[in-house]
Amino acid sequence: MLKLEHISFNVPSEQGRKEIIHDVSLEMEDGKFVVVTGPNGGGKSTLAKLIMGIEKPTSGRIYFDGKDITDSNVTERAKMGISFAFQQPVRFKGIQVLDLIRLAARKQLSPADACQYLSEVGLCARDYINREVNGSLSGGELKRIEIAQVLARGTKLSVFDEPEAGIDLWSFQNLIRVFEHMREVTDGSILIISHQERILNIADEIVVIADGTVTSRGPKDEILPKLLGTSSAVGLCSAFNGGEE
Amino acid sequence: MIDEIQRRLLREIADLHSVPEGAYNIRTNGELASRATTANIDIVSKTDVSGIDIYIKDGTKNESVHIPVVLSKSGLKELVYNDFHIGEDCDVTIVAGCGISNCGNQDSEHDGIHRFYVGKGSHVRYIEKHYGEGDGTGKRLLNPGTEVYMEENSTMEMEMVQIKGVDSTVRTNKAELKAGAKLLVRERLMTHGDQYAESIYVANLNGEGASADIVSRSVAKDNSFQKFDSRIVGNAPCSGHTECDAIIMGNAKILAIPQLEANNIDAALIHEAAIGKIAGEQLVKLMTLGLTAEEAEEQIVNGFLK
Questions:
Q1: A210, B94, B99, B103: most buried by Cβ count inside 10 Å?
Q2: How far apart are CA A186 and CA A202, in angstroms?
Q3: pLDDT tens digits in sequence order for chain B, 306 residues long
Q4: H/E element holding A145?
Q5: Do A90 and B290 touch (CB under 8 A)?
């Protein structure tokens, strides 16, 4: 359903151009749960943005359901069925949680229906539905609201960029349950950028990206054992202790 | 008689779909169109100048007064004085507002001066909306003024809204607060085209425990100009806060001048001002939900002004 063909992406730098992604080719099948991991700065988030169309590749093609979407913009890709959860959820003045859930669902949901999505991500919906999506919400709350929007969209492909980044340990444990649940019930394909061992553990397939290229990929049982103990698969405690177990 | 254009203007400025409940005074094209009073609220036309006196008896609770003005004739200019005499221990809502529909080629102008005398312990909610429409070359001009005189422990909440269609506005607002009086102002403004909008606020906190909170949220589009000039003067132990938060778009210009003057060591005053364009990441975020860039911009502006 998603196919990346020889994707490269570079940005201007002092030495001319800096390559962030180098000749990456990947294929993702329908209904699969794929986790992309690898060291920080390896190009994982950039890859997620290239899929959503937030960044445009310098060369290579991207196909979605057999259609070349390389030149499609973010709106067009969203309408075709790609969702994206930001690593750092964007804040708005005046826009309420209910507004975003309604926009995501593309219909005038009743507050009760919108609340269901919030409940799924473990938020007591009544307390949140009319809150503004601004700095009054914590990182963990924003993250869950971000995920609730992806659930409300219910698209063929959902991309999550480091759902564990910037949230506290307690929130993250709850978040993992959300993904475990999603794994069981969803029909669509899920692509998560993550270092988290517990998220890697529920993957069908793991892709390791380092220095802008795919260094290994394969079924979880094959890849995960090789990653344990490295920065590509950190345990819950080490993630919150700067890598020290 | 109220015609269809005037009816539409009334809907825009006062959410009025039929005759309002309670006391009201509807003015159309410079003349009284209809009026109602209640046992507690009386409305009397002034004899020396154009305008009305509104008398609200002590202890009047949960009542409302609507005094909308609509202009649908091109070339009409008027200056009106409306004075509100609010007794003690009242709790009332006042809805004012002006709608101009100008399809002609002459300028239409309504300048309304509202004076409020708020009695001890009374709570007043004041809502003022401005709206303009019409594709004529004549300009739609509004220059409202408010003066608020607040007795001890009274509260005044003012909601000032001007979302579109008014070519030029200079809004002048002045408030004098005695001990324990509380002033809350929420201004929402959107200008577009070549519009000009100026808001001037001066709040004098004269008694112990007086407080003022004056907040403006605005969006300036196209070639429009906005000026927000808000000044809080602390003459006693008091607290004051004024804030301007603006989104700038196109070739618009915004000037924000929050000012504080403390004349007492226990006057605690704060001001904030921020002007910025719509953040690119906000647009991208809404586009990932399937909105076009234009739709995303509209959502961001609507949310901001909500």
A1: B99
A2: 13
A3: 577 777 777 777 777 666 677 899 988 888 888 899 999 999 999 999 999 999 999 999 999 999 988 888 888 888 899 999 999 999 999 999 888 887 778 888 888 899 999 999 999 999 998 888 877 778 888 888 999 999 999 999 999 998 878 889 999 999 999 999 999 999 999 999 999 999 999 999 999 999 999 999 999 999 999 999 999 999 999 999 999 999 999 999 999 999 999 999 999 999 999 999 999 999 999 999 999 999 999 999 999 998
A4: helix A139-153
A5: no
Map out the domains of chain A as residue ranges.
Answer: 2-234
Q: What are phi and psi of B169, to 5 degrees?
A: -140, 135
Helical H segments across B146-292, by residue range: 280-287
**Chain A residue with minimum CA distance to B294:** A75
Question: A151 and chain B: CB distance < 8 Å anywhere?
Answer: no
Residue B129: beta bridge partners? B97, B161
Query: Which residue among A73, A78, A93 places its CB closest to the CB of B289?
Result: A78
Contacts of B303 in chain A (CB under 8 A): 92-96, 99
- Three-state DSSP state, A77: helix
Beta strands in chain B (DSSP E): 23-28, 31-36, 41-45, 51-56, 61-71, 77-86, 91-101, 108-118, 123-133, 140-142, 145-150, 155-164, 168-177, 182-191, 196-205, 210-220, 225-234, 238-248, 253-262, 267-276
Give the chain B residue whose CA is nearest to the CA of A155: B289
Measured in angstroms, the CA of A21 and the nearest CA of chain B are apart by 21
Query: Which of the residues A73, A93, A143, A151 would you substitute to probe the B interface, choosing the one with the greatest number of B C-beta atoms within 10 Å?
Result: A93
Q: Which residues of B touch A74 (CB under 8 A)?
A: 284, 287-288
Is B245 in contact with A54 (Cβ distance < 8 A)? Answer: no
Q: Is B286 on the interface with A (CB under 8 A)?
A: yes
Say whether residue B285 is in contact with chain A using an 8 A CB cutoff.
yes
Show Cβ contacts of residue A148 under 8 Å, excluding neighbours closer than 6 positions: A101, A117, A118, A120, A121, A123
Inform me whether the C-beta atom of residue B49 falls under 8 Å from chain A C-beta atoms: no
**Region for B222 from its dihedrals, namely left if φ exceeds 0, alpha if ψ lies in -120 to 50, beta otherwise:** left
In A24-53, the residues whose Cβ lies within 8 Å of chain B are 52
Cα A55–Cα A58–Cα A64 angle in degrees, nearest 5 = 60
